[in-house]
Amino acid sequence: MTSRWGQALRTPVGIAASVGLIAIIVLAIFAPFLWSDDAAKLDLLHASQGASRAHPLGTDALGRDILYRLLVATRLTVSLAVLAAGLGALIGIPLGAVPALVGGRIGRLVSGFINLTVAFPALLVAIFVAAIVGVGARGAVIGIAVAVAPYFARLSQTLAASVAGSEYVASARLLGAGHVRVLRKHILPNVAEPLLITMTIAAGDALISLAGLSFLGLGVQPPNADWGSLVRENIGGLSEGAPAVLMPAVAIATLTIGMNLLIDNLRRRSRSHGDA
User: What pTM was estimated for this model as a whole?
Assistant: First the structure.
């Protein structure tokens, strides 16, 4: 697996996507330290202005520089998306492994539950759960996690079933290994690559869902901001300050496309490696 990841990262597409993702990560780490004060600075005399040399993306209704706010919002945007995807994986992967580990009536019930939940549109589930949990970042993260968990569960169910009948799993059971140990020691290490790929895809999907929830007013709330809330805040002045709306949307699209390009490249490398 390590060699295939390395080969994928050394291709032109892999290098470009990796450089972009690393830049986003570096920005997420350091931007709040560098520009938080500039992003929060109020200047009512220059409120709601369009792009200028002093403010390349213009200012918002409180005179805050939108470019600085966009840069500082990177950390919250990325961290919440990764947290939501990780929480969804934490819920879905063990749930999907239950039918292969336990079997019987419980396994069939869990399998039926997974099939039922996958049928619901993820974004609608996220909106519904976020509205119940409460408006804000916490509700948005929980809503997205609940929405993506069934997809992790379905994949985990398929992968665990393909491994559960192997000789080394049977040997571990004969030696008295419990369900958790079998899952941790014998199943997950052998299905790690597709789960990691799905985790990356889910993080990109979570980024888009988070932006959508924030745009609808269900996600990140003032005074905090993520890329989706920046679009919502500045959508009213679209005709006067298009960059203020477009740049957060471009940032969302760029990061998501970069992640998808990297994963598609890895998949192609994996297929070519398998054919070889």
Answer: 0.86
